[in-house]
UniProtKB/TrEMBL annotation:
Source species of the chain: Arthrobacter ginsengisoli
SUPFAM superfamilies in UniProt: ACT-like (SSF55021), P-loop containing nucleoside triphosphate hydrolases (SSF52540)
Gene Ontology terms, MF aspect: ATP binding
Pfam families xrefs: ABC_tran, NIL
Compositionally biased tracts (Low complexity): 329-344
UniProt name for this protein: D-methionine transport system ATP-binding protein
Cross-referenced SMART domains: AAA, NIL
Disordered as annotated region, ranges: 329-357
Domain ABC transporter, residue spans: 2-241
Record keywords: Amino-acid transport, ATP-binding, Cell membrane, Membrane, Nucleotide-binding, Translocase, Transport
Keyword Chaperone: no
Length: 357
C-alpha cells in the first residue's frame, strides 16, 4: 500500500547542503501497522513532511496503492493529501471549534453538503468513542479525548493511510494504551494502512507488525517485528527485548564467559539452561533477563555467566543446534534508548504544520 523508493531530501543552507533523508526505501502492506523509530535528528519529521507533500522530495518516489504522489502537480496536491489522514502529537485542534466543528473542518474545505457533514461527523465521533461530546470544546476535553477528536478528523476524508506523528508521547501510560488500542481497532475495522512515527519502543511493541530504524536520514534496520527481535546483533532487538546493565557475580563464576541468549517460539518454553548445565556439568548464573510477547510470539532474552572452565564453543554449538541464538557478550550491555536526543540535523522551516520530531 505505501511504497517509498530511494527518497532523498536535501536542504540548502547558504553554501552548505544538509541531507535530511538519504535514500529511504520501505514498503508497508495494506492493513498493517508499521513503526518508524529513531532519535531526534534522525529524519523522522522530514519523512512525514515528504509523505504528506508538505515538502517536495529532492528525488525518489512515494506511492500509495500504486499511485505516485511525489510527482503530482501543485494543483493536485490537496486531492493527493486526502489519501493520507494525519494524526499529530498534540492533536492540533482549533480551540474556537467544538469537537464536531473540528472533525467537520476538512469536509467543509472540500464543500461537502451540510447534511452529509452532520451525518459523517456523528459517525466518526461514535467510531472513536466520543458520542455525546459533539459540543465540547478542546479545553473541556482530556488529552486522550482531544487525540480521539484528532483521529476522527484524520478519518474524515476516508483516507487509505493513517500517518501518526508521535501520537502518544504527550499522554500518560493508561491513555497511551487506550489510544493505541483505538488505532489498532480502526486499522482492522477500516482496513487502513498505518505508519507510526515514534521514539517510544513501547508503542512499537504494543501495536506494530513491522518496524524500521531511521538513523541520520537512512533506514539502517527494517523488518517484521518477529524477525528483527530474533537477531541478537540488531539494535532493534536490544530495544525490543531490553536487559538491565549487570556485572559478573563474585565467586567461582567471576571470570567465566558471559553469554547473551535469545529464545523465541517453542524454545522460549524449554528448560534450555538446565539442559546446558546437565550436558556440560557446569554451573550457570543468570545475570539479567526479560520475556516479551511480540506480534503474538513469545521471546526471552537472557544474559548468563558460565563457569570459568566451561567449553564456550561447545555450549554455543549446543544452543545453536536447538535453534537458539547465542553469542559471547560483555557483562554490561544496556539497551539503546531512542528517547535520548541526538544532536538534531538543522533544517530550515517552511512554516507549515508537519508535526514534531
Amino acid at each position: 500500500m505505501i511504497t517509498v523508493t530511494d527518497l532523498r531530501k536535501v536542504y540548502q543552507q547558504g553554501k552548505k547542503e544538509v541531507v535530511a533523508l538519504d535514500g529511504v526505501t520501505l514498503s508497508v502492506p495494506k492493513g498493517s501497522i508499521h513503526g518508524i523509530i529513531g532519535h531526534s535528528g534522525a529524519g523522522k519529521s522530514t519523512l512525514v513532511r515528504c509523505l504528506t507533500l508538505l515538502d517536495r522530495p529532492t528525488s525518489g518516489s512515494v506511492s500509495i496503492d500504486g499511485t505516485e504522489l511525489s510527482s503530482v502537480r501543485d494543483s493536485e496536491i490537496r486531492a493527493a493529501r486526502r489519501r493520507i489522514g494525519m494524526v499529530f502529537q498534540h492533536a492540533n485542534l482549533m480551540d474556537s471549534r467544538t469537537a464536531a466543528g473540528n472533525v467537520a473542518h476538512p469536509l467543509e474545505l472540500v464543500k461537502t453538503p451540510k447534511d452529509r457533514i452532520r451525518t459523517r461527523v456523528a459517525e466518526l465521533l461514535k467510531l472513536v468513542g466520543l458520542e455525546g461530546f459533539e459540543n465540547a470544546y478542546p479545553s473541556q476535553l482530556s488529552g486522550g479525548q482531544r487525540q480521539r477528536v484528532g483521529i476522527a478528523r484524520a478519518l474524515a476524508s476516508d483516507p487509505d493511510v493513517l500517518l501518526c506523528d508521535e501520537p502518544t508521547s504527550a499522554l500518560d501510560p493508561a491513555t497511551t494504551d487506550e489510544i493505541l488500542d483505538l488505532i489498532q481497532d480502526l486499522t482492522q475495522r477500516l482496513q487502513l494502512t498505518v505508519l507510526i512515527i515514534t521514539h517510544e519502543m513501547n508503542v512499537v511493541k504494543r501495536v506494530c507488525d513491522s518496524v524500521s530504524l531511521l538513523s541520520r536520514g537512512r533506514i539502517v534496520e527494517h523488518g517484521a517485528l518477529r524477525d528483527v527481535a530474533g537477531d541478537l546483533d540488531s539494535q532493534l532487538a536490544r530495544a525490543l527485548l531490553p536487559l538491565p546493565a549487570s556485572e559478573p557475580l563474585p565467586g567461582a563464576l567471576e571470570r567465566g564467559p558471559v553469554l547473551e541468549i535469545l529464545f523465541s517460539g517453542d524454545s522460549a518454553k524449554e528448560p534450555v539452561l538446565t539442559g546446558v548445565a546437565r550436558r556440560f556439568d557446569i554451573d550457570i548464573n543468570v545475570l539479567a533477563g526479560s520475556v516479551e510477547t511480540l506480534d503474538g510470539q513469545q521471546f526471552g532474552h537472557l544474559r548468563v555467566q558460565l563457569a570459568e572452565n566451561a567449553d564456550l564453543d561447545a555450549v554455543l554449538a549446543y544452543l545453536r543446534e536447538r535453534g537458539i541464538s547465542a553469542k559471547r557478550a560483555a557483562p554490561a550491555a544496556p539497551a539503546p534508548d531512542f528517547a535520548d536526543a541526538a544532536p538534531p540535523t538543522s533544517v530550515p522551516s517552511t512554516g507549515e504544520q508537519g508535526g514534531n520530531e
